Amino acid sequence: LAQDKKWRIGFSQATTIEPWRAQFNKDIVAEAAKHPEVELIITDGGDKTEKQVADVENLIRQEVDALLVSPKESAGLTGVVQQAIDAKIPVFVLDRNVDTDKYNQFVGGDNKLIGRAAGEYAVELLGGKGKAQGNVVEIWGGMGTQPAHDRHDGFHEFTDKEPGIKNLLDQQSGDWKQDQAYNIMATALRNNEKIDLVYGHNDPMAYGAYLAAKDAGREKEIKFIGIDGLPGEGVTWVNNGELSATFLYATPGAEGLRQAIKFLNGEKVEKTVTLNTMKITKDNAAQIMKDNGL
Ligand code: FRU
User: Fold this and answer.
1) Given this model, what pLDDT does residue 169 score?
2) Whose CA is nearest to atom 8 of ligand 1?
3) Span 174-205, pLDDT tens digits
4) Ligand 1 center to 76 CA (angstroms)
5) Given the CA of residue 204, which atom of ligand 1 is nearest to it?
6) Measured in angstroms, how far is the CA atom of residue 163 from the centroid of ligand 1?
7) Average pLDDT over residues 142-166
8) Would you state the pLDDT for residue 5?
């Protein structure tokens, strides 16, 4: 019954067309099911900033008790997040940041750390510290997002120290999408006789690049690294030998909702909650799939 619902929590999701976000929504819905006192209202921005802005405005008008938001991009969502804060709605920013820190809490992975782990592994795959050699294709996520910049910066902290590593592309964004990454890679393959490693800012893009290389008959010469580590995609692709590694980027769905409820119940919450990561290679991929019933 509606009157049993003590808290109305709004969650503005950027899009649900990407598999990681579909999982994110599943995680938050599963967590909400454990809290009968919570009514969770989820909106879908359809991968469009304007739509997501309208969604948040709508949730503000509905006077939700707390707002969770996972922005499509930082700049475009900052104003409306500020509006929610001004309306005294507790705000929890999930996964992708906005350009203000006046919100109550940020919950997400440490993208700089993940980028560093990917960079360190890339150096290892290309021959090791001080000896690494190779041509690298990096496919960026959305340029207007903090995760893409952090994943880039962290990676280059390692690879830029290697004089033998050459970057073939300059800030080419596949906007987190497999098909866009496929096209970027198809062009890179046409323009470069030798490509040794692809770093995709997420698994769908690393896999899109793999498929382009496969269609060009060159996938065996190239190592592919991604990020996200969903059991049904990234981990499976690693297990198949299509990607060399992926790095877990856990969805903040369950934790974000738990934190908001904690706050609404009068408890203190940290400004930042950082979710754990792990490296996934052939060594542990099969086990992770098994643990997830695959
Ligand atoms: C999904 C996604 C994930 C990625 C995250 C970064 O929309 O692109 O693949 O890890 O967003 O914010």
Assistant:
1) 97
2) 176
3) 999 999 999 999 999 999 999 999 999 999 99
4) 17
5) 9
6) 30
7) 98
8) 84
Between the CA of 113 and the centroid of ligand 1 the distance, in Å, is: 16
Q: Are 123 and 115 in contact (CB under 8 A)?
A: no
Mean pLDDT of 110-136: 98
Looking at beta carbons, which pairs linking 16-21 to residues 24 or more positions away fall under 8 Å? 16/44, 17/47, 18/176, 18/177, 18/204, 19/204, 19/230, 19/232, 19/233, 20/202, 20/228, 20/230, 20/249, 20/251, 21/70
What's the 266 CA to ligand 1 centre distance in angstroms?
31
User: For the chain, how far is it from start to end, CA to CA, in angstroms?
Assistant: 37
Neighbours of 54 (CB within 10 A): 15
Q: Report the pocket of ligand 1 as residue ranges, CB < 6 Å.
A: 18, 20-21, 95-96, 141, 145, 147, 176, 202, 227-228, 249
Q: What are phi and psi of 133, to 5 degrees?
A: -135, 135
Angle value at C-alpha 209, between 122 and 20, nearest 5 degrees: 85
**Cα 82 to ligand 1 centre (Å):** 23
- Per-residue pLDDT of 3-28, as tens digits, reads 578 999 999 999 999 999 999 999 99
Give the list of residues 6+ apart from residue 233 with CB closer than 8 angstroms, or none. Answer: 19, 203, 204, 207
What does the pLDDT read at residue 241?
98
CA within 13 Å, CB half, 176: 23
